[in-house]
Every structure is written in structure tokens, then in C-alpha cells.
Amino acid sequence: MTVTGIILSILVFVQAPLADQAKEKAAVDASKAWLKLVNEGKYAESWNEAAQYFKNAVSREQWKASLEAVRTPLGNVLSRKLKSLQYTKTLPGAPDGEYVVIQYETSFKNKQNAIETITPMLDKDGKWRVSGYYIK
């Protein structure tokens, strides 16, 4: 391998994690904006802002009813702290694409310790949008 080849290999090795970090940051920003809607009880609006994949899987009415049944009883968010995030191109049961699986340690008024898992994906228009949300 030539010196130029070695330098190019090193640059690719260093730039790949930086690219993933930029994607992770964009996904976290998208998750925070989306969670703000959920926190405010704007469930239908959160559906509007979700990824197309999400919208194809669940209707607005189903989503709103699900959150009213599961999220509303938890009460207001008292704290939310980023626990973990992982960039991936594959998820079980989902089409290949670009995803960031984000977990938050969250405390609600009526549930002290919860883990929120939110999965933004890179939508076809190049914007990160939420494709999944779970509370445990």
C-alpha cells in the first residue's frame, strides 16, 4: 500500500465516526422536538411530524388513542436524561435505512423511573423523523 493509500484509509477511518456523530446529533435534535409535542399532549401533531414509515403503520386516530391511554396517565415529565444512542442501518421488522435508537431515563409525575426508547429515521426527504416510541 502506498503512503497516499494509507493516508486515505486513515481519513476514511476517522471521518466515518464523525459522520455517524453528526447523524446522531441530528436524530437527537429531532427526538427532542418530537418529544416536546408529546409532552404538551399534542399527540395528533406528533403523528403529523413522524416518519412516513410510522404513519403507514399506525393511523393518527390509533396513535392519539394509544398515547392517551399510555402516556397521559404518567403525568408531566419531571426529568429526562439521555441514557444511550446507537446509529444503525437495520432494525428487526423495519426496512433497511438509517436509524438512531435513543434511550432516555425519564421521570414522570406518576412514574418515577421509566425508559423511553425513541427511534428517529432518516426520511426520504433527508429529514430525521421519529419512526418508533416506547415507554418501559
What does this structure look like?
The protein starts with a helix and ends with a strand. It has a single domain (3-135), classed as Roll (Nuclear Transport Factor 2, Chain: A). With 136 residues, the protein is α+β, with helices and mostly antiparallel strands. A 4-stranded antiparallel β-sheet has the order 1-2-3-4. Helices cover 44% and strands 31% of the residues. Residues 3-16 have low confidence and may be disordered. It is built from 4 helices and 4 strands; from the N terminus they run ααααββββ. The radius of gyration is 18 Å and the shape is globular.
Topology at a glance:
Blueprint: H1 3-39, H2 43-48, H3 52-57, H4 60-70, E1 77-88, E2 99-108, E3 111-122, E4 128-135
Antiparallel strand pairs: 1-2, 2-3, 3-4
Radius of gyration: 18 Å
CATH topology: Nuclear Transport Factor 2, Chain: A
Low-confidence spans:
3-16
Tally the helices: 4
Tally of discrete structural domains: 1
CATH architecture descriptor text:
Roll
Query: What is the strand tally?
Result: 4
